[in-house]
Amino acid sequence: MAKQRLGKGLNALIPELPQIEDQGVQKLPINDIAPNRNQPRQHFDAEKMEELAESISKHGVVQPIAVRKLDKGFEIVAGERRWRAARMAGLKTVPAVVMELDERQVMEIALVENLQREDLNPIEEAEAYKTLTEEFGLTQDEISSAVGKSRPAIANTLRLLSLSADIQSMVRDNLLTAGHARALITLEAGEQKEVVERILKDGLSVRETEKLIGSMAKAGKEKAKAAKVKKPWVMEMEGMLGELLGTKVQIVQGRKKGKIEIEYYNNDDLERILDLIRG
Question: How many structural domains does the chain have?
C-alpha cells in the first residue's frame, strides 16, 4: 500500500532545501546552533545516531540543515538528527540554510519532518498537536491540513494524553501500541491497569484487547442490571408499607444506606399520610 502523503509536506512548508554546492548554504559554527525548543521528538535512538555519526565522519553532512536566526546564534528548524550526529562526529561547522520563520511555522515544519520520517512515537505526536492547539491557536482542521491526517485521527491521537502517565510511558517505550492505548481510553483507571496487565502478560493483540474490553463492559451492564432487581424481602416491605399508608412506596437501597420514597397526590393526601405516620 502506498504511504499516505503528508499534507502540505516539507516542500510546501520549506522551499526545496538546496544541496551543499548550491548558493544559499552557509557553513555555520556547530556550537552557535541550538535545538528547536518545540521539537516534537524527545527520543533519539542511540544506535541509529552512532550509525549516522559514523556516516557523517566519512562523507560529511550531505543535506544541509535548516535554521532560523535568533538574537544570539541560530535555532534548528529541520535536521536536528544531522546536527546531533555532526557534533558526535566532532565537526566544527555544519552546512545550513538560514530561513525567516515564526514560532508556529517552526513547530509545523518540525512536526511534519518527523511525521514524514515516522520518527515520532504516538505520545510525542499527541503532545505536538497539543502545542499547536494551545500555544499557537491552530484548530484540529488546520493541523489536519498541515500534516495530511484526518481531523478524527488528530482528535484520537490527542485523546491519548488523557491516559495516566504510566500508560503514556509504556506507549513511549513501545510496550503498548497506539491501538492498545486508544482502546483503554474508555475505561476507569483501575480497569485500565487490569487490562494493561493482561496485555503484557498474555501478549494480547489490539483486536483481542478490544474484545476483552467489550466483554468487561457487557459484564458491567449485566451486574448493574442485576443490582436493580429488588430482593423479595424488599418488595414485601414495600407492599406492607404501601398497604399501611394507602399509597405507592419504594425502598431504594444503597451500599450502606437507603431511602424510602412515599408518593402523595396533593396536599390533603400528604396530610393524611403524615397523620398515619404520627399514629
Answer: 3
Distance between CA atoms of 185 and 256, rounded to whole angstroms?
31
Question: How many residues are recorded in the chain?
Answer: 279
Return the C-alpha cell found at 223: 451486574
Residue type, 184: L
Q: Percent of the chain at pLDDT above 90?
A: 18
In a domain, 154, yes or no: no
d(CA 212, CA 195): 8
Q: What angle do CA 30, 45, 19 make, to 5 degrees?
A: 45
Find out whether 80 and 43 touch, Cβ atoms under 8 Å: no
Task: Write the pLDDT tens digit of every residue in 40-51.
Answer: 676 777 887 888
Instruction: Flag whether pLDDT at 141 surpasses 70.
Output: yes
DSSP lists the bridge partners of residue 258 as: 253
Q: Tell me if residue 279 falls in helix, strand or coil.
A: coil
Q: Are 238 and 264 a contacting pair, CB within 8 Å? A: no
Active-site position among 47, 75, 80, 243:
80
Strands (E), 121-195: none
Report phi then psi at 113, rounded to 5.
-60, -45
| Domain interval for residue 269 | 232-278
Q: pTM here?
A: 0.56
**Active-site residue flag, 80:** yes
Q: Left if phi > 0, otherwise alpha if psi is -120 to 50, otherwise beta: which for 74?
A: beta
The CATH number of residue 176's host domain is 1.10.10.2830
Parallel, antiparallel or unpaired: strands 33-34 and 74-78: parallel
Quick: pLDDT tens for 174-226.
899 999 999 998 888 888 889 999 999 999 999 999 999 888 877 767 666 66
Is residue 219 located within the same domain as residue 240? no
Separation in Å, CA 21 to CA 17, 24, 158, 170: 12, 9, 42, 44
